[in-house]
Amino acid sequence: MMFRWLKRFTPRGLYGRTALILVAPVVVLQLVVSFVFIGRHLSKVTTELAYAELRELAVISDVVDGSMTQGEALARMAPLLHRFGMGARFVEPGAMPDEDFIQWYDFSARVVRDTFRERMPQIAVLEFGSDNMVLAYRETALGVLRLSFSRRRVTVAAPHQLIVTMVAFGVLMTVIAFVYMRNQLRPITRLARAAQAFGRGHHMRYKPSGAVEVRAAGHAFLDMRDRIERQIEQRTMMLSGVSHDLRTPLTRLKLGLSMMEDSEPLLNDVAEMQKLLDAFLDFSRGAVEDEAEPVNPLDLVGQIVADAQRAGMGVELALAEGDSDATLMLRPSAIRRAVENLISNALRYGNRAEVSVLLTPRQLRIRVEDEGPGIAEADREEAVKPFTRLDPARNQDRGSGVGLGLAIVADVASIHGGRLVLGRSERLGGLLAEIVIAR
Q1: Which is deepest, 157, 196, 361, 393, by most CB within 10 Å?
Q2: Contact residues for 162 (Cβ-Cβ < 8 A; gap 6+)
Q3: Domains of the chain, start order
Q4: What are the φ/ψ torsions at residue 306 (nearest 5 degrees)?
Q5: Residue 317: helix, strand or coil by DSSP?
Q6: b/e code 200-229 from CB counts within 10 Å (16+ = b)
């Protein structure tokens, strides 16, 4: 619960999360090692070197403090300066800088300065120049003495060598690990693409590969896909066979009843049975009768509305917005059947229907609105189930059905990797049915 806010900053993709898992421990390890190395080992070594240099400076200081003139002091210091590898000269007070000169990133120089301040307060200013020389200004009774010595006497020669080596090998090993991990993730991404394509009604070639667990998941997916395809095929064959086989006896029954007197009620019943069989056949075909192909959804929906208007239906195209040249992989017959079902459903319970189509870079939305009584929010989930009729909630006098209209639409949307959304129309006050398909 307390770390839920971190989800906003974590990558959403598998590659991004894997890279984070690989990089984060390496970075944390390097930071910890660098802190321990700089804070303990490097600081301790630098302090010891500063102590050694301070002892030599103390000898020089004793010589200066025991001299009467600057010339005498320089003459007495000369042998010591040669032995210690130092340089010394007296300067004017105005030549001494006002403050220390240390680069902001120079950790070792700060340790040396603090050690000098603690053990020899007489040293007023320290300068760590770019020429690897250190200038120490000491105020004496004879004037300001400037001592110069090599930086290598008080600091480690290459304090960053360990850190640079560690960072370089850390980056190298991270790259190698990421390349290896990428090869392990490719089978997972291929499995995800195959599953996504199957969810949208496409049959993508897929061969399990990768680690044992990924192969097992791939074989399970192939078995599942085969079972689903067999079930769809068996459902289609069963319903198609039943519907087709019943057409012949119904035709004979209709012919026999037409020769009888007062057979109008019976003929109506036969016609109703014929309508139910047609609904069963439409449901059995679903969206599998045609293959997906590039389709311009704006043109397709416009043609559907134009055909409905020619048939005398009270429907109009309220909105058609999007790239007029864009195409999507759709099953045109299935989309046509779904939109026509929504239009018929809208006109069954209302006097007019409005169709809208919106194509964005991320999704396709086909909306049908009517001015009927709509469907209560509590009944919308039940309404899309096959053979479900909500006539008491709608208007039963306007027509009858077998309860497959919305089920067929939901099935078509699902085959395209989308969904059917039911709501209430803000403009017309009736039902709002929307097919949403991701691009």
Answers
A1: 393
A2: 37
A3: 4-159 (no CATH), 197-285 (1.10.287.130), 287-438 (3.30.565.10)
A4: -65, -40
A5: strand
A6: bbeeeebebebeeebeebbeebeeebeeee
Q: Produce one character per residue of 151-175: b if its CB has 16 or more CB atoms within 10 Å, e if not.
A: bebbbeeebeebbeebeeebeeebe
Q: How many residues does the chain have?
A: 439
Q: Which of 91, 132, 94, 128 is nearest to 111 (CA)?
A: 128
pLDDT per residue of the chain (439 residues) written in tens, 0 to 9: 455 666 676 777 777 777 777 788 878 887 777 777 666 777 888 888 899 989 999 999 889 888 899 999 999 999 999 888 899 999 988 888 888 888 887 878 888 898 998 888 888 899 988 778 899 999 888 989 999 998 888 887 666 666 777 778 888 888 888 888 888 888 888 888 888 777 766 778 888 888 888 888 889 988 888 888 787 777 767 766 766 677 777 777 777 777 777 777 777 777 777 776 776 666 665 545 567 788 898 999 999 999 888 888 888 888 888 887 888 888 888 888 889 888 888 888 888 889 999 998 888 999 999 888 888 888 878 777 766 666 544 444 444 455 667 888 888 888 887 888 888 888 888 889 999 988 7
What residue type is assigned to position 103 of the chain?
A: Q
CA dist 108 and 116 (Å) reads 12
- Residues 6+ away with beta carbon under 8 Å from 246: 273, 277
Q: How many whole angstroms separate alpha carbon 336 and alpha carbon 342?
A: 10
